[in-house]
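Posting for a labmate who doesn't have an account.
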Amino acid sequence: MGAIEVENLTMAYGELTAVDDVSFEVAEGEFFGILGPNGAGKTTLLEMIEGLRKPDAGEIRVLGGRPWPRSSALLPRIGVQLQASSFFERLTAREQIRTFAALYGVPAGRADEWLERVGMVEKAGSRVEGLSGGQMQRLSIACALVHDPDVVFLDEPTAALDPQARRNLWDLLGGLNDSGRTVVLTTHYMDEAEVLCDRVAIMDHGRVLQLDSPGALIRSLDAATRITVSRSRSRTTTSPGSQTWTQWTTVRTDWSWPPATRRGS
């Protein structure tokens, strides 16, 4: 039995089918990605699996239980980081995570440990209004993990971050399932899915179009691989004043594989 099982899941908003007959399974300890453009149905799919929305049709099982209707036995075993983070006003980062911890009966000391794990110790006394986008996302992830859930859902955690902040967050996300935790991530960045995920479901217009490892998905593309080799040439020159110097020239040579087919062949 997988950590998550989704079968023929469907959800519509009026005439718009946001999720259209989607099925897949996520293994325990897997880092699973759902990749697609804005409006593909990723967030709606995730919210149904989390138990935040009731599906129109289909079956969902998370850790052997049904997320809808809301299950008091299942909720402590999952962690959720929403696409739009919302914190209590006028509280510091430390107060925020301790509040979330208290909801699960987690002691304040363990909450502080999570601030350290996500690199937020120096900002622990700062109000959330003064945090950067990347710091807000780190705090949000810490709040989702403070009760040590078996499954964690991350909905586009690096959206709207600059490239450097995104890569810094990857270092944190990459270690989330080291202890066997199952992670489900939605993203619209292929490079992010390639770095973090064991398998990726490519989603668009409410349907899963492909599902495989990032490497297999890339290899399936019918595109040439270009190899560039740089080599240097030197030329020694002597000036009229008998001064000698060496000039280096870099020559680039490109190959494409497979070779281009000539027209008519």
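Reply:
Got it, the structure tokens are right above this. The radius of gyration is 25 Å.
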